[in-house]
Amino acid sequence: MAYQFDFAAVWAYHEMLAQGAMRTLALTAVGAGIGVAVGTLGAVVRAWRLAPFDRVFGVYVELIRNTPFIVQLFFIFFGLPSLGVHMSEWQAAVLAMAVNLGAYSTEIIRAGIVATPRGQIEAAASLALSRFEIFRHVVLRPALQRVWPALVSQIVIVMLGSSVCSQISAEELTFAANFIQSRNFRAFETYVVVAVLYLLLALLVRQLLLWIGRRFVVGRPAT
Amino acid sequence: MLVRIDGLHKHFGANHVLKGIDLRVKEGEVVALIGRSGSGKSTLLRSINGLETFDDGLVEVDGERLHADQTDLRALRLKVGMVFQQFNLFPHLSVGRNVMLAPRTVRQTSVAECESLARAMLAKVGLADKFDAYPDQLSGGQQQRVAIARALAMQPKVLLCDEITSALDPELVNEVLATVRQLASEGMTLIMVTHEMRFAREVSDQLVFMHQGRVHESGDPKDLFAAPQTAELAAFLGAVG
User: Three-state SS for B48?
Assistant: First the structure.
């Protein structure tokens, strides 16, 4: 007997899916914002070898990049309360995403910084700019420009990875999917729809971030 | 004396690249540093604004002293401008912004003043119409002239030029040399490392021939070109034609 597809059984929950998708986006926006800020700080500290913080960031980067995201998330949500640090599922999800992206973006942005041609820095130094002024005006924007596509990819990866936040009951898109298929028993249809939604979200976020990159990071009219 | 260099020594590891350099440059003087690659001329030039550290000796520009272990270079660099072989314009900033950056950031001049200053400097190097262009839209010669305008915008007492035509296509060399010639005629103090021998002879007041980390011979360029006193300078001039 052939399986009878029933996507209407998923459509019945479209409001829930829409809400889940919006929450996934919101989670990504906040997590990525904090994560990239942390990454920029870490990149500077590591690129300039500011002791002792460069060591601290070095350990942080290795720790995060060599452990699974879900373990990091569980540690924050289930582990930290043992030390008296309690968080809502949303706070834990945002924190885990920011911490995770912070480590990856530290290395991505650092690569952009160390690729700055030495002559650029010498030219700025010879104009009497201080180290900080050189970083702010001469190094940072071209560095972000160089690594922007890699950074965007990493943000998309983190967004897709946020699906595991459903495991701590953060009611984002995958949580909605799990809920729906447990009600309508239409696992195939539900996960097909959710996969397509993730695909669309990823494409949207990627295009949006690349546009932001062209508009604000490159910051010059197209030629 | 605008620039005074006394007993400058510099090592790169075991390599003794500057072996006690003394140099005096008067205000308005144009000094050409020549010599083979590896003779230490670029290192000497880069020591004058602290891009290279040195191990012993003293650099003084307009009363601002630089010692071997000094780390605060701001006061010195306010008096010394520099133009590089590779132009080193900031690729993400328009030509105008390249020129405005240092006056705005370092001297905290108002934006409006910076802009008129930048326009004046660009006009001086013949690029008034390129204010809104980006470096990669310019030829090498134009980029180098922007770099000169950028350095001039900080009103330096002395301008260092490090082989500023060496990365240019031959047909673009002259426009840059013409700009330097004009600066020299306006009384700008210039210290330049150059391979353009004819230019050095015509424009400079003092020719300094460096050889193996020392000032091997120096003096009036016309005398030196006509009658080099040392075999090394004669050989060098013969080799470069």
Answer: coil
Is position A113 within any domain? Answer: yes
Q: What is the CATH number of the domain that holds A128?
A: 1.10.3720.10
Phi–psi pair at B28, nearest 5 degrees: 85, 0
| C-alpha dihedral sign at A14, A20, A23, A24 | negative
Chain A interface mutation, best of B88, B97, B154, highest count of A Cβ atoms under 10 Å: B88
Query: Would you say residue A43 lies in a domain?
Result: yes
**Nearest alpha-carbon partner for A172 in A36, A64, A73:** A73
How do residues B42-72 score in pLDDT, each as one tens digit? 999 999 999 999 999 999 999 999 988 777 8
Q: Give the residue numbers spanning the domain of A49.
A: 32-170
Residue among A122, A145, A220 minimizing CB distance to B88? A122
Structural domain count of chain A: 1
% of chain B exceeding 90 in pLDDT:
94
Question: What's the complex ipTM?
Answer: 0.93
CB contact under 8 A, A127 and B106: yes
The answer to the question of residue A197 being in a domain is: no
